[in-house]
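Tutorial handout. Part one gives the primary structure; part two gives the three-dimensional structure as tokens.
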Amino acid sequence: MQNRISSFPPFIDDASKILILGSIPGVKSLEKQQYYAHPQNKFWRIIFELFKEEFTEDYPERISVLMKHHVAVWDVIDSCERKGSLDSEIRNEEANQISELLEKHPNIQAVFCNGGKSYKNVQKILGKDFKIPVFLMPSTSPLHTISYERKLEDWQKILEYTR
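Part two.
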């Protein structure tokens, strides 16, 4: 049985310089109503380590750290049907209004896609001639099995755009 699920609103403000896009929240994130809530997802650890912030489990504080460092977060998919949390199980998806979000927030200098599904979808949504760079980042999901150290190293690219 496939369940219809919806993404969360974006975390973004006028000072945001980069936009990190996932695909759509997984089961744990939907349960907690928080981005990247699965305890084995490395998103928050990577963000806190890159910005040399003291790690916290407190979700409002996590969002404050994103805003402090000019990082916006959203998903490429607004809603879809999916059994479980795997991107490969996504069916009947509806896209989020990424182009409109970027138009409303012209300070965004780059888009970073958290995994292949997000990147593929952004390519379709924005097209090849989009005016700001779009980067494919290794997924922070525990299902993406490269080492934490390698993920952290690759994700350092966001620092070039947040200073």
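Part three, for discussion. Strands lie at 3-6, 18-22, 71-75, 77-82, 91-95, 110-114, 134-137. The chain has a mean pLDDT of 93.
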